[in-house]
Amino acid sequence: MATATIADTPYAPTHPEIRDAVRALCLKFDGAYWRKLDRERGYPTEFVKALTEAGWLSILIPEEYGGAGLGISAASAVLEEIHRAGCNAAACHAQMYIMGTVLRHGSKDQKQRYLPKIASGEMRLQAFGVTEPSSGTDTLSLRTTAVKKNNSTYIVNGQKVWTSRAEHSDLMLLLARTTPKDQQAKAKRTEGLSVFLVDMRETLNKGLTIRSIRTMMNHNSTEVFFDNMEVPAENLIGEEGQGFRYILSGMNAERVLIASESIGDGRWFIEKAVNYAKERKLFGRPIGQNQGVQYPIARAYTQIEAADLMVRKAAALFEAGVNAGAEANIAKMLASEAAWACAEMCVQTHGGFGFAEEYDIERKFREARLYTVAPISTNMVLNFVAEHVLGLPRSY
Fold first, then answer.
1. Coil, helix or strand at residue 33
2. Mind listing the domains of the chain with CATH numbers?
């Protein structure tokens, strides 16, 4: 039942020098910038370009390929500060955890061909094609197929949904079925899926169609359709049939990084609420003098601080090479729920002004709500903890 621990590395480093530099960059992209994009459902091209040129999006790529070669705690610091500054890293955060699959399981040729261009910004790896309309989080039931036509090509047919940033990415990491499910041994239910690196510059409108999905927040979500799309066999990552394992190996990193964004959101909401409670006066006194206003802010602060400790623990374990599945999932759940509690508190503190666009709270309110559902919902995290940590019978 016990989760993994390391006595001499209980928490990941906080990287204050990285935080200061990222926050300075974010000051150039104020609330007006994000409000305009939110109204238009636009992509923050200038913001992503600035992050890329500063080297923050290549922080996990080894130095030999043009990156900084740092660990996940450094990447977490980058994403947390982006959100703490009132910005949104959703337009580019996937690059950090998607390319881990290439790093861990790609061939030497694939790494040399793609990673330097990703690090420099010449190519964007932002799209992650996994979820499907019929299977959702039941990844092992996905239906998109990749059939080997000859020794040099796979033919892909199917559909993916919630493939964010596909319209603004050059490359897509795609999970597809290479072994029909009815031919798959039950004992090897996790096999039969394979991972491909799809160059969308070559396949768009040549078997690949992208359609945008308008959502309650500006997340650049899309659905993608594959109609006899050709993918070179050399773009297969690792071994055929082992793709699910490759994808899983990157999910702990995804959980930690998303959790870091939620911590940043929570701290943004707290700062906004504290400042407003000090300045706003009613009945001749600051509203922050009232315990009815103080207590929700203080409670939100305790929630976000506690969640942050779990995020740092998960990051430390991940960097030490320990299986941090439980910690990463718990961190993501606690951080997202704490951020949502902070969002609720911030709106309540501001009253009617919390709904006004100019305060940025309603935008961040919508953005923070996403992470209690995606990339994995709270209920799925609880399923994981129940089965894999507590040893309870599998529920699905």
1. helix
2. 16-120 (1.10.540.10), 125-244 (2.40.110.10), 248-389 (1.20.140.10)
